């Protein structure tokens, strides 16, 4: 565990440069030589977020937000939020962006053609906090207002996704069983995959993800959308997976790649040094806990290695690549809603 003084000193040493997205350039240095520094904490504790990089700034929006300023003790102290905030990667303070049209947890934030999108997610009301959405929203500028984007063909959330070429792809997650849509058991795991081209008015079906699952980690590496880990819901509870698949646009099909070294769900992924980095997650059942392990996939060898352990265990977090570093945002350090945090850790060379 790094001391706070070491984290802050490392952060201060990072040079301020215009932010750029995922770094796919090959770095021959071993993954374990990367170091952690501490960034400026989010304005509030939040988990189940999918942050992104937009106009050179980190953006986090929606999620399960703590009703108070402190780390929360249980899921009952969390509620969906419409808040959206942004900050340059090496900034010292977050600023408010226009709020989402409705409070959402698990909205998938991404960028296409210079616009910020929020895909799916869940709205909540007392007794029904898992009302899955098909609606999507788009924000053209930080001073604009959110407006409707093409809706998904059916409600779908807890998805994997990313921009492959100019097309936005999403895959997997969960979708409602027929009729009910308000509680977690009302939904089933899905492999459904969709493509949205710039300017298109509707999503187009793609071949489904071979292993249906939710709560996976995803990122685009070398033009492929990688989907790593995730979980499925079974009669005996939640089961994490090691599955690792990638969409190959050249062959228009999913390919199966080396599985993760350990089953994970509720983790996050981003690209740095031409590798896929996966962070944290949670396990349920006997010995269930949040994880601090880091796993790194090398596409040249189709193998995984261990990276430097995170400063704290986290699940429900998000990961964003910017300026040759990876920023981890939000999450909880215990299973479920306990100890939801405003975390911001930076992994860099």
List keywords for this structure.
349 residues, mainly beta, Neuraminidase, four-stranded antiparallel sheet, disordered N terminus
- The CATH superfamily is known as Kelch-type beta propeller
**Reading side by side through the largest sheet, how are the strands ordered?**
1-35-34-33
CATH topology call: Neuraminidase
Helix content: under 10%
Q: What is the CATH C-level name?
A: Mainly Beta
Low-pLDDT windows of residues: 1-17
State which percent range the strand residues make up: 35-45%
Rg over CA atoms, rounded to whole Å, is 18 Å
Describe the oligomeric state of these chains in a short phrase.
single chain
Number of strands: 35
Termini separation (Å)? 18 Å
CATH architecture, by name, is: 6 Propeller
What is the total number of structural domains? Answer: 1
The count of helical stretches stands at: 1
Shape by Cα distribution: globular
Write a compact overview of the structure shown.
The protein has one helix at 4-13; strands at residues 35-38, 46-47, 52-54, 57-61, 64-66, 78-80, 84-87, 95-97, 108-112, 115-119, 122-125, 128-132, 136-139, 147-149, 160-164, 167-171, 174-176, 187-189, 193-196, 204-206, 217-221, 224-228, 231-234, 237-240, 244-248, 253-256, 268-272, 275-279, 282-283, 289-290, 294-298, 303-306, 318-322, 325-329, 344-348.
């Amino acid at each position: 565990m790094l001391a706070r003084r070491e984290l802050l000193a490392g952060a201060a040493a990072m040079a301020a440069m215009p932010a750029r997205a995922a770094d796919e350039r090959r770095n021959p240095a071993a993954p374990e030589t990367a170091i952690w520094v501490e960034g400026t904490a989010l304005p509030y504790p939040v988990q189940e977020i999918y942050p992104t990089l937009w106009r050179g700034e980190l953006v986090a929006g929606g999620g399960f937000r703590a009703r108070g300023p402190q780390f929360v003790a249980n899921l009952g102290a969390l509620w969906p939020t419409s808040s959206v905030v942004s900050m340059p990667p090496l900034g010292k303070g977050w600023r408010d962006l226009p709020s989402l049209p409705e409070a959402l947890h698990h909205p998938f934030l991404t960028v296409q053609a210079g616009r910020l999108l929020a895909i799916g997610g869940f709205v909540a009301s007392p007794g029904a906090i898992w009302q899955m959405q098909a609606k999507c929203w788009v924000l053209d500028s930080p001073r604009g207002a959110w407006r409707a984007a093409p809706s998904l063909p059916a409600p779908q959330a807890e998805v994997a996704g990313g921009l492959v070429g100019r097309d936005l792809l999403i895959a997997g997650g969960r979708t409602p069983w027929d009729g009910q849509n308000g509680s977690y058991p009302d939904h089933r795991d899905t492999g459904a995959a969709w493509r949205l081209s710039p300017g298109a008015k509707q999503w187009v079906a793609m071949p489904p993800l071979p292993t249906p699952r939710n709560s996976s980690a995803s990122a685009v590496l070398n033009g492929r959308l990688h989907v790593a880990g995730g979980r499925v819901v079974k009669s005996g509870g939640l089961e994490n997976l090691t599955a690792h698949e990638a969409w190959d646009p050249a062959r228009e099909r999913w390919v199966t790649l080396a599985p993760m070294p350990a089953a994970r769900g509720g983790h996050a992924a981003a690209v740095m040094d031409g590798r896929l980095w996966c962070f944290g997650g949670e396990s349920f059942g006997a010995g269930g806990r949040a994880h601090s392990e880091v796993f790194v996939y090398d596409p040249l060898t189709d193998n995984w290695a261990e990276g430097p352990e995170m400063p704290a265990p986290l699940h429900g977090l998000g990961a964003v690549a910017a300026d040759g570093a990876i920023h981890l945002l939000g999450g909880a350090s215990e299973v479920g809603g306990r100890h939801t945090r405003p975390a911001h850790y930076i992994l860099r060379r």
